[in-house]
Amino acid sequence: MALHRSPSGAETDHSEVRTTYLNVAAVSGVHRLPPPPAASLCGRATVAAVAAGAVVAAAQTLVTPLIGHSPQVTIGALLPVANTTDAATAAAGGGTPAAAATGIGGDQPLPDTLAVGALDPLAQLDVKSLTKAVDIGQELARQAQLIRSALAGGASEAHPFGDTIYVRPTSGTLTSVFGARWGVQHLGIDIANKIGTPIYALSDGVVEEAGPASGFGLWVVLRHPDGTRSVYGHINRMFVKLGDKVQAGEEIAEIGNRGESTGPHLHLEIWDAAGNKLNPIPWLARRGINF
Which domains, from first to last, does the chain contain? Predict the structure, then answer.
């Protein structure tokens, strides 16, 4: 390209002028991404779900190996809490938030701690939901400890029912159920196994009877806090005496073949508070124990 001389006679390098022009244009025409919108107290984020889920999952992990399945606990999947407005912007009454001014990818200042009292009504509801989730986790942990204690004596399974723990009273084969049998009423169920098989207290209770009994040879009767009684008949040996307090899962006797019996087994009866003899099968099933 030809070079043009200046009035003074000096040659002018147009490439330098052109470069300078482009640099100026680049500066004046630069485009910036719009700053992210400022968060407000009405904004909501879904971060509390992680904390709530962790608490409940930890408690479920304790319970599941003990009862064989995971208890169903319904909790909101997302428990949002409120975001905060940048402190500098709130104090100035407007303007561009300091965090946004640094642009995307810049160092973002941490928001100030937000007091619970400053939350809007919906945010306060979320805090209550999180608190409830924590309470559920603590209750599951408490039940796990009770189940672990009930299984310590050797019972094969234990289940919570309300505030009470129930255990499988013995191991063996169900050989006779509640109802008519051989022309008479069979008022319990029979669980057959070898002599000496442990028998466990079905639930917490007090020993109301312990010793010889007509037809049963030897028996143990427990009275439970709700007034019901559990009866254990044909036992070989008993390990409790009248008036003893026992806990769910505690070994109280062992299977025998005493009294009017055709083979070693546990005869188990359930009496309600009025003394009526109940069918143990559905009664136990409602408490998680199935035969």
Answer: 44-151 (no CATH), 165-285 (2.70.70.10)
